[in-house]
Amino acid sequence: MPSSNASRRRRACRRTCSRSSSAAWTAEPVTTRLEVVEGDITTLALDAIVNAANDRLAGGGGVDGAIHRAAGWAEMQAALRPFGGCPTGGAVITPGFRLPARFVIHTVGPVWRGGGAGEPDLLAACYRRSLELAAEHTLRSIAFPAISTGVYGYPAAPAARLAVATVRGFVAANAGLLERVVFCCFSAESARLHRAALAGEAPA
Question: Is 64 a catalytic site residue?
Fold first, then answer.
């Protein structure tokens, strides 16, 4: 029969080895990088890009049309048709098809009606739900256009501040889920407003 001293040594070794193994597999927390780029969102080779879609998910002008054309209009519409549309503030996900991005997250922004029809909450929901979908699909990088600031008429400066605040809030509450979030702006002015929002500055 083994001695009590030998038994104690084996138990101590098991505890030490277990702690060492756990320490070896502990990963450093991921820091999410937020950045602004000025350019064409369809050229970004990320896990996902976000499309500013209409509620019918039928393709349209602006960034919506550009993403459809770059991905392949027929393929994208075939993937979107089963959803039967999407409510304002909601989002759905499809493959990226011919795009450099692996996936496209389609979200429907609010039409600006003066600010009293819940537009800020709906716009924030677009960003939040898109980020939730990215996390649900284990995506690590995502790019947003300036949702609703085109033909939907949302004022660009408050939209940029809300976009940055919503993304920051999600990242803070979900540390380690995302590595990179890009605000991809089509114009220099939009890029300036997003950079000012990231820096915490009031736009001029």
Answer: yes
